Task: inverse folding
């Protein structure tokens, strides 16, 4: 019958250290993956909020072409926006408006820039139709 000695029972110090190193490497990888996922989710949330705010801003602004200017405002998610409008001459009887909308995060970083154009039909006398 073999006798049990203290050296044959349990783990050695080297085995325990190797197990800790392997476990630490796995936890670091999991932490980095989680951190990356949270940043990606935050970026998607900000982009969606920016898209919704842009839709609202463009839908609410219908001032006549002679009222072109720069406007600023703030959305419900803490995003701020700046809308610049300028006239562009297309032909003798037509002009267009160029609308540039910048959406800024609470951190001050620009999230999105939207540019759209709207044709303003005019007759030969220069009146809007």
Result:
């Amino acid at each position: 019958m073999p006798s049990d000695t203290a050296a044959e029972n349990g783990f050695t110090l080297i085995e325990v250290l190797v197990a800790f190193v392997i476990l630490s490497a796995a936890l670091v990888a999991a932490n980095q993956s989680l951190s990356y996922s949270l940043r990606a989710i935050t970026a998607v949330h900000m982009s969606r909020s920016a898209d919704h705010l842009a839709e609202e801003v463009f839908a609410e602004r219908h001032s006549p072409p002679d009222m072109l200017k720069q406007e600023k405002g703030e959305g419900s998610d803490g995003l701020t926006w700046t809308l610049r409008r300028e006239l562009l001459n297309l032909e003798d009887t037509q002009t267009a408006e160029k609308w540039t909308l910048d959406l800024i995060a609470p951190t001050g970083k620009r999230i999105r820039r939207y540019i759209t154009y709207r044709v303003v039909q005019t007759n030969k006398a220069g009146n809007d139709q």
The radius of gyration is 31 Å.
